[in-house]
Amino acid sequence: QVQLVESGGGLVQAGGSLRLSCAASGRTFSSYVMGWFRQAPGKEREFVAHISWSGDSTAYADSVKGRFTISRDNAKNTVYLQMNSLKPEDTAVYYCAADSHRYYSRTPHDYEYWGQGTQVTVSS
Questions:
Q1: What contacts 66, CB < 8 A, 6 or more positions away?
Q2: Cα(70)–Cα(3) distance, rounded to whole angstroms?
C-alpha cells in the first residue's frame, strides 16, 4: 500500500514556474513507476509525465515536452514535477500516481495509487 500526498500547486501568471512535489509513504516507493496526470474542469484526466523506478527513463506528453521535467528522489520517497513557461491551458488539478507493475503506461487505469491532487491555476 502506498499513500501519496501532492503539494506545491498555486496561482501563477503565464510564463511563470511551479514545482510540484509528491511525497509517498511505504518502503517500496523506489520500485514503482511514478506518473503525473492532470484534469481540467469538464475534461478527462490526461497523462503529463512518468519516470522509471530508477529515474533514468522519463516520458512526457507532447503538450508539456520541453517545459516540464519529472524527477524523483528515492531516498526522500518523493517525485517532483518542475513546470516552466506555464500557459493558461496548463490550468488543472495535478495528480501523482504510482504503478507497481511497471507498465510505463500513459493510461490512468494502469496506476493503482493516487494522491488527492493539487490545483494549478495559470492566469493570462
A1: none
A2: 19
- List all residues 6 or more positions away from 8 whose beta carbon is below 8 Å from its beta carbon: 18, 19, 20, 21, 118
Confidence of residue 25 (pLDDT cuts 50, 70, 90): very high
- Report whether 35 contacts 99 (CB < 8 A): yes
Is-contact 94 23, C-beta < 8 A? no
pLDDT in tens, 63-97: 999 999 999 999 999 999 999 999 999 999 999 99
Which amino acid is present at 121?
Answer: T
Which set of grid coordinates corresponds to residue 49? 509525465
Asked if 82 and 94 touch (Cβ cutoff 8 Å), the reply is no
